[in-house]
Amino acid sequence: xxxxxxxxxxxxxxxxxxxxxxxxxxxxxxxxxxxxxxxxxxxxxxxxxxxxxxxxxxxxxxxxxxxxxxxxxxxxxxxxxxxxxxxxxxxxxxxxxxxxxxxxxxxxxxxxxxxxxxxxxxxxxxxxxxxxxxxxxxxxxxxxxxxxxxxxxxxxxxxxxxxxxxxxxxxxxxxxxxxxxxxxxxxxxxxxxxxxxxxxxxxxxxxxxxxxxxxxxxxxxxxxxxxxxxxxxxxxxxxxxxxxxxxxxxxxxxxxxxxxxxxxxxxxxxxxxxxxxxxxxxxxxxxxxxxxxxxxxxxxxxxxxxxxxxxxxxxxxxxxxxxxxxxxxxxxxxxxxx
Length: 338
Ligand SMILES: [Zn+2]
Ligand SMILES: [Zn+2]
Known about the structure:
By secondary structure, the chain is of the alpha/beta class. The protein has helices at 5-8, 57-67, 155-168, 183-193, 207-215, 268-273, 288-298, 310-319; strands at residues 12-14, 17-20, 25-27, 35-37, 50-55, 72-77, 83-86, 89-95, 103-109, 112-116, 138-143, 174-177, 200-202, 223-225, 237-240, 257-261, 278-280, 302-308, 323-326. The protein is globular, with a radius of gyration of 20 Å. The two termini are 38 Å apart. 49% of the residues are buried. The mean pLDDT is 95. The chain binds zinc ion (2 copies).
């Protein structure tokens, strides 16, 4: 018997991803399935076309907004902390701290508990319920930043760098590239926490999701659209999709300072590649110390690593005296959630 057989009886990989056979569902499947539990709204996890979807109310609202009201045959809400029986297992959704509505899936079957964490982070985020640790026998984790070189800076320091640049170059627009679901709203909320109370200007592509966050109770302060701007916005903060950073669109701004908020900005070459003047290391994933800490705290005897830099993390898991396994799942690049 292989050491993983105990869990593989009821949680295994098939062509659509992680499948819980006794529960009759997949988690974040990459192909259309009958029944899916979706951890959060990023497009590598929340795909259209499933028969039935179970998720938090916020994730369902995000899926409907991005993918259309008929993105799934049916939607069923499960709030954080509520438990539901599905086939032979019980399921609970627990905050993952990644973006609004993001959840870990805790599954119990015959006295054994598995937690599939989806994407998660441990640091504070004013726009998402804080990560909750669940002790378990099997912990399934991602490893987007699963190398010891990845250490994220404290958010407040990165926001401070942006505000310091604004003070140093008061005549230039500060144009910040940020993905539209999660990172943009978190940046706005962090700026508000730092006392920045001027209107924040948005590229049109960011408007709908910011409005939805507002409807779901996340206060982002005063927002305005660049299209409605009366000037070339000197000295203002503008948020746009990363793809628009070098676009002709930027000509309507005043000598922009180009910033980009992403965990990858820790890698200088990536910032240079994108022509980013002010890289901001703000990530919605765990860095290496947080991954190791979380694995330790779950007390899981077995840890599966879904995607990312699995090799280093699986090695580390072994060093920690647990069984590690790289699942090498494809289709979860999560560029938009980095
Ligand atoms: Zn992801
Ligand atoms: Zn994500």
